[in-house]
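TICKET: design request
STATUS: open
ATTACHED STRUCTURE:
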């Protein structure tokens, strides 16, 4: 009598694939190529030739151009109005003046004819002013307002004070001629007074174009 249970070969287990963490190599055998690493955030990696840096410089140039076109430096153009293609200091001329006292103002022909009882000709005031002539010419296009700073200098050429002159609604090509003054109530540098003024010069001109 034979055994009913047949002898069966034992099943061979299927090997589980494992991650290869080390590839044995022989000396002198090159390693297999590694997959390329993706650049972070999707931006291209900088090249040896500096392509990415060049692109950044171009972007900066574009931003500066937009600022200029959009009036980012509007204050500069307000001072340096380009209507005449030049700096507006050339629109103003001043002449060296002279000290004037009350005696020079009234003189021997003084005739007080106003309605007030006080006689100006009897004034004993010692007020002294420095008077100078100036001309403002609108060399640009259209109407404009002018604000001007005039500096005063002593006999050594040192700055001692300043005053302001101007013109309003001056038409293109027109000139306004007036008289400017420094008086003893103005502020002066280092203990100087109005009698120390020897010369005057234009220090700053602002031209404001007007629409009408």
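STATUS: resolved
RESOLUTION: sequence designed for all positions
ATTACHED SEQUENCE:
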């Amino acid at each position: 009598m034979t055994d009913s249970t047949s002898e069966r070969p034992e099943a061979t287990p299927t090997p589980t694939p494992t991650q290869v963490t080390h590839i044995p190599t022989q000396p002198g055998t090159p390693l297999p190529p590694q997959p390329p690493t993706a650049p972070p955030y999707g931006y291209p990696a900088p090249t040896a030739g500096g392509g990415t840096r060049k692109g950044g410089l171009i972007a900066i140039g574009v931003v500066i151009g937009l600022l200029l076109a959009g009036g980012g430096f509007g204050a500069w153009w307000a001072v340096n109005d380009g209507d005449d293609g030049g700096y507006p200091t050339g629109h103003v001329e001043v002449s060296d003046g002279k000290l004037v006292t009350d005696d020079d103002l009234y003189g021997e022909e003084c005739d007080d004819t106003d309605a007030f009882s006080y006689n100006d000709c009897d004034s004993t005031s010692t007020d002294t002013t420095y008077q100078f002539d100036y001309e403002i010419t609108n060399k640009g296009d259209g109407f404009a307002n002018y604000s001007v700073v005039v500096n005063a200098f002593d006999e050594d050429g040192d700055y001692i004070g300043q005053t302001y002159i101007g013109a309003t609604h001056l038409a293109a090509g027109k000139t306004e001629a007036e008289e400017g003054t420094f008086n003893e109530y103005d502020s002066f540098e280092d203990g100087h007074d109005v009698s120390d003024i020897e010369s005057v010069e234009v220090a700053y001109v602002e031209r404001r174009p007007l629409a009408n």
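CLOSING REMARK: The longest strand covers residues 159-170. Helices lie at 51-69, 74-79, 102-106.
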